[in-house]
């Protein structure tokens, strides 16, 4: 695996090998990427999507909260009910959490 490669880690965070680092947005601690202004990507609570010409590598998107507001709702043929509701919707599929780690040397 080349330096900069990222994999999913099943083990405990304290057991990450010394030549790998958690992808939590922190400064790279050693190796050829150390001290050149690079941080690990912050992949905390994120999933990976393939990059292409419209999704440029190293960019982020999406939202952790999806809300909806419902305005007026028609009741019958001639009357409306005014409804104002703010709701948050969690639309994540079932998941299993693993840590992303990046090879730093």
Average pLDDT confidence is: 82
Helix % is under 10%
SSE class = mainly beta
3D shape: elongated
Order of helix and strand elements from N to C terminus: EEEEE
**Straight-line N-to-C gap:** 10 Å
Reported for the largest beta sheet, the result is:
3 strands, antiparallel
Rg computed from alpha carbons, rounded to a whole number of angstroms: 21 Å
Describe the protein in words.
It contains no helices and five strands. With 105 residues, it is mainly beta. The chain has one domain. The strands form two sheets. A three-stranded antiparallel β-sheet has the order 1-5-2, with no helix packed on it. Strands 3-4 form a two-stranded antiparallel sheet. A hairpin with a 3-residue loop joins β3 (66-75) and β4. The model has no long low-confidence stretch (mean pLDDT 82).
Summarize the SSE layout with pairings.
Blueprint: E1 6-9, E2 20-22, E3 66-75, E4 79-89, E5 99-103
Antiparallel strand pairs: 1-5, 2-5, 3-4
Write a compact overview of the structure shown:
The chain is mostly beta strands and 105 residues long. The chain has no helices and five strands.
Using brief descriptors, characterize the structure shown:
105 residues, mainly beta, 3-stranded antiparallel β-sheet, two-stranded antiparallel sheet, 5 strands, 0% helix, elongated
């Amino acid at each position: 695996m080349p330096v900069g490669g990222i994999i999913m880690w099943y083990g405990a965070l304290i057991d990450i090998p010394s030549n790998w680092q958690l992808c939590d947005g922190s400064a790279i601690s050693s190796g050829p990427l150390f001290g050149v202004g690079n941080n690990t990507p912050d992949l905390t609570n994120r999933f990976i999507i393939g990059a292409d010409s419209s999704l440029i590598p190293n960019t982020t998107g999406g939202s952790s909260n999806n809300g909806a507001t419902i305005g007026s709702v028609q009741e019958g043929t001639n009357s409306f009910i005014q409804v104002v509701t703010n709701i948050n919707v969690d639309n994540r599929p079932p998941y299993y959490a693993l840590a992303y780690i990046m090879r730093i040397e």
